[in-house]
Specification:
single chain, about 260 residues, alpha+beta, outer membrane lipoprotein receptor (LolB), chain A, 2 domains, 12-stranded mixed β-sheet, 5 helices, 12 strands, about 30% helix
Length: about 260
């Protein structure tokens, strides 16, 4: 999947799904992601209006638009002046197909490992680590007593654990004003995102219930850090959530034509 799509889903999941309340009109914010295995250093811009979300990523300006009101995701590449789009139904079908293929591959691998001598099998399973787990991870969100100010907002620290191991810490603020209308949109988005895997379903459910407030700073166990550097309520224009003029539509690699008109 396109790296920007992956990053946008991750950031939107953390920055939006976990909110227990929502902005009444619109909002825009900036976040800097740094560190991690890929040594990222990217500044992303986010926009929200009821039924519509957008992320513009990094220096290249690639964007992802999520139209909850039309059940459509649009990905744009300014360098190519091109865009791709998928309906939510197509995205779910694609992810379910990919999940089925992966499950079949893992089952075949387990059968091959079962035929190995015990020592070789245990060594291989250790090398494969979490990939060989068959059960869903246990996700736990713990509210701590720690607090600090992030970009001018008072935040409380939450620890997110998977099977007892710390995977991330989230500094969330409940003092950002005008929360309400956005909540239903985020719940809808969470349900559609949850199709990716059983693990993500459980993780998103735990975060939704466990983190109270907007995540201003998220730090993962592998060293990735995403910090909101600016956030403000705003009446974001509808044009922000549409394909810019002059862009040509291209088919997503491996996806059939959607049958939708250009710029839908």
């Amino acid at each position: 999947m396109n790296p920007l799509v992956t990053r946008s889903m991750t950031v939107l999941s953390l920055a939006l799904i976990v909110t227990s309340t929502a902005f009444s009109l619109g909002i825009r914010w900036e976040a800097v992601t740094s560190g991690g295995p890929s040594e990222l250093n990217e500044a992303d811009h986010f926009y929200y209006m009821p039924g519509m979300m957008k992320m513009v990523g990094g220096r290249e300006g690639q964007f992802v638009i999520i139209r909850l009101d039309k059940e459509l995701m649009i990905m744009g590449d300014p360098a190519k002046k091109a865009y791709y789009q998928m309906t939510f139904a197509e995205m779910e079908e694609m992810m379910e197909g990919a999940s089925a293929v992966m499950d079949a591959q893992m089952e075949a691998m387990r059968q091959q490992l079962a035929a190995l001598p015990k020592e070789q099998r245990e060594m291989a399973e250790k090398m494969m680590g979490s990939q060989m787990k068959q059960k869903e991870p246990e996700i736990e969100v713990e509210k701590t007593g720690e607090s600090k100010t992030v970009s001018g907002y008072s935040c409380t620290k939450y620890l997110v654990k998977e099977d007892g191991a710390l995977v991330s810490s989230v500094w969330a603020s409940s003092s950002i004003p005008e929360f309400d209308v956005m909540r239903k949109d985020m719940e809808q988005f969470a349900k559609r995102m949850a199709v990716m895997s059983k693990a993500s379903r459980k993780s998103k459910g735990a975060l939704t219930e466990g983190v109270d407030g907007f995540p201003m700073l998220t730090e993962t166990a592998d060293g990735m850090r995403t910090e909101v550097t600016k956030i403000e309520a705003a009446e974001v224009p509808a044009s922000e959530f549409a394909v810019p003029e002059g862009y040509s539509k291209e088919e997503m690699p491996g996806m059939p034509a959607s049958g939708m008109p250009d710029g839908y």
